[in-house]
Amino acid sequence: MREVFHQNLKIVSDQLVELTHLAGSAMSRATTALIDADLALAESVITADQRIDEVRAELDALAIDLLARQQPVAGDLRMVVTSMRMSSDLERMGDLARHIAKVARLRYPNSAVPAELRATIVEMGHIAEELVAKAGSVIASRDIVAAQELEHDDDAMDAKHRELFTRLADKWTHGTTAAVDITLLGRYYERFGDHAVSVASRVVYLVTGEWDLAVDHEDHEDDLDLS
Amino acid sequence: MREVFHQNLKIVSDQLVELTHLAGSAMSRATTALIDADLALAESVITADQRIDEVRAELDALAIDLLARQQPVAGDLRMVVTSMRMSSDLERMGDLARHIAKVARLRYPNSAVPAELRATIVEMGHIAEELVAKAGSVIASRDIVAAQELEHDDDAMDAKHRELFTRLADKWTHGTTAAVDITLLGRYYERFGDHAVSVASRVVYLVTGEWDLAVDHEDHEDDLDLS
Fold it and tell me: Is 3.90.550.10 the CATH number for B2-223?
């Protein structure tokens, strides 16, 4: 019984790692679609989000089945409940990549990103990919040192996000529509990073044996002074 | 044993209803603080969000305790897991009200909202309050007709959100900083509504006996054409 349970937990863990791959790939392609104004690539990201939703639904169904059939307690219960929370974060990360692809599609054949901001957006895309890749490694390895590093790694995203707002506040010459796009894009990248940090924090709680009742939905946008 | 379980489920349900009250109150006061540029009121919303986080943590701790001690199956298990998902939505709604209060604080002693848009924002605030109040009633009553109405009620929020984007796209004269503020505020109200719809949809799944594997984080922003 317990062996079956742990085989199933391993499947759940593998699905979480797969979700990090899918979310990372979506983010990478969404950023390229945005910068290159590549409509076909944008469409492919939008379509592929369905696969993320499916893996997430499979994972949650398996987790619920484990709760019902195996009635885990203590660490096993924590693992199952926490997995569902991580799947929620990762599904949301897929949505955020899809939002970025939708902005790319909306502005096609132009790029939504003014030339002078492309380097910043490309870098936010790279940071996002690195954060979700590291979150995936942390899920697989249970390396809590790496997990704790993620919060610090996300500071680079916050810095780039602040850079966008500085540009928006200072002699913006690209018009209101571009300002709206950049505001939303900045928030999508930022929230993607926040959810990656959430995933890693949940692994820390798993390993330390505490419940992650406080780490949900951390939102670093709060600290932004837009003025 | 089952009687104790159902007493505890009643506590969880009451806590969910309390969370809808707290989120609704936060949203009402955040909107007033934003429109009136009332710094003290904005600060009170920001501080009060901690109470929402606490109630949410208590609720989740009780739900997890029920899973561990009572090992519910079928409808009872669904109720416990779904309650944790609803508490996550409601906690997030509190965060979104806090974000609005933070924009009010940031622009004090000015209002972040240009005079011509105040009626629209006030109306978005009212729609948000009505949605969360109705979500609270639905949790208490299990009235799935009312629950299903919420998705339609949220269309009014989408329409107002679209109205904001139309104003932003057409002869915007209030500068880039105000455009950034309005873009973010619009998204906060919109997402608040989406989470209220999520809560109601989860009640539908509870009553119909299905799992709500697909309703998470619906995001109507997707349908917005910003051009």
Answer: no
Residue type, A207: V
**3 state DSSP class of A112:** coil
Q: Which of residues 82-121 of B touch A (CB under 8 A)?
A: 84-85, 88, 91-92, 95, 98-99, 102-103, 106-107
Q: A192, A219 in Cβ contact below 8 A?
A: no
User: For an interface test with A, which of B89, B226, B227 has the most A Cβ atoms less than 10 Å from its Cβ?
Assistant: B226
d(CA B99, CA A152): 23
Looking at residue B105, its amino acid is R
Give the start-to-end residue ranges of the domains of chain B: 2-223
pLDDT tens, position by position, B60-72: 999 999 999 999 9
Q: Tell me the C-alpha to C-alpha distance, in Å, between residue B116 and each of A157, B26, B112, B122.
A: 35, 24, 12, 11
Contacts of B225 in chain A (CB under 8 A): 106
**A65-110 pLDDT, tens per residue?**
999 999 999 999 999 999 999 999 999 999 999 999 999 999 999 9
Nearest CB to A57: which of B71, B165, B213?
B213
pTM metric for this prediction: 0.95
Best CA proximity match to B30, nearest among B57, B54, B15, B52: B52
